[in-house]
Each structure stands twice: as C-alpha cells, then as structure tokens.
UniProtKB/TrEMBL annotation:
DNA damage found in the keyword field: yes
Gene3D superfamilies according to UniProt: Uracil-DNA glycosylase-like domain
Name of this protein: TDG/mug DNA glycosylase family protein
Coiled-coil segments on the chain, per record: none
Alphabetized Pfam families for the sequence: UDG
Keywords: DNA damage, DNA repair, Glycosidase, Hydrolase
CDD domains attached to this UniProt entry: UDG-F2_TDG_MUG
Organism: Paenibacillus brasilensis
Length: 178
C-alpha cells in the first residue's frame, strides 16, 4: 500500500431505504478518496453516462453525489479502500467486501442493484460469465441485478455504447413508475 493510499479516507456510502437504484463500483479512486465523493476522477465518465441515459435531469458534479438520494439513487462499493486501480485490491478485501455488500443490499433492498462493471458483479456473485443488463437469477430474491459497463476512462467502449446500455436501466425505471 502506498503512502498516499494510507492517507486517503473511505468514501461514505449513500444508502437509504426505498431507493430505486444502488450503483456499486469496485472501489473509490485515489481522487474520490482525496475529496470524499463517488466517481470523482476527472477521466471517469459516470456522471455524463447518467445524464446521457436520461437517469438524471442534468449533469451532476461528483460533489453533488449525495443529492442523487433525492432521485432514488444510492452509492456503495464492493471494496471501500481507495486505490490507484482494481489490481491493488486483495482477494481478502474482495471476500470481506462481498459479504458486506450482500448485507447492505439485503438490508436496504433497492429495486435495482446496478453493478458498474462486469468485474464488480463477478466478484460479488462468483458467476464467471455474465452479460450486460439484467441478470436472470439475482442473489437476493425480488431485487433486480443490472450489470453495466464500468465508467472508467480506461474502458475501451465508446461513451455512446456505454450510455446505450444504461438506457435499458432508465427504460426499466420509467416503466416501474407507470
């Protein structure tokens, strides 16, 4: 663990009962750990994806992440320690995080658990092969599991391709309101 990483703080979960979606990432970036907000790395496309998919009414700034609770959206991670990259997360951290995440989802029971990256979902579910979108056999009954591409700037998919996948989530949520 680098000296910089030991100085960073965990980014608080934003969870509540009755949420439509909880977005679940691998872990906070160094920038998120530095400023204390989710998806704060300037190269991360998360906030643009949400706006582009119609999930938010305007482009939010990472400093406004708590405001999304008002829209019915929460945030957590499978591992809470900020790191430079997912390769810095240990097997032990994943094992502990998997149990903690399952407990959080079971307690708060959002309509949809949205995993921001296939790797996040495979670490949580221990399923080796998954497709984008809603998963056929959720681990917690009566909760939908949605797998979306990572919003990291390192992902080779275009912003439009990623946004199209998130639009399926927006369509589902719109149909639930009716």
């Amino acid at each position: 663990m680098s000296e910089q990483e030991t100085e960073l703080r965990e980014v608080d979960d934003h969870l509540d009962y009755g949420l439509s979606v909880v977005f679940i990432g691998f872990n906070p970036s160094l920038k998120s750990g530095e400023i204390g907000h989710h998806y704060a790395n300037p190269r991360n496309r998360f906030w643009r994806i949400l706006e582009g998919a119609g999930l938010t009414p305007h482009l939010y700034d990472p400093s406004e992440d708590r405001e999304l609770l008002k829209l019915g959206y929460g945030f957590t991670n499978i591992v809470s320690r900020p790191t430079r990259g997912v390769e810095d997360i240990t097997r032990e951290e994943y094992a502990k995080g998997r149990l903690e995440l399952h407990a959080k989802l079971k307690e708060y029971r959002p309509k949809v658990a949205c995993f921001v990256g296939k790797g996040v979902y495979t670490e949580y579910s221990k399923k080796s092969k998954v497709n984008w979108g809603f998963q056929p056999e959720p681990l917690i009954p009566e909760m939908h599991e949605f797998v979306a591409p990572s919003s990291s700037g390192l992902v080779r998919m275009s912003l439009e391709e990623i946004t199209d996948i998130y639009r399926h989530l927006q369509t589902f949520l719109s149909s639930e309101i009716v």
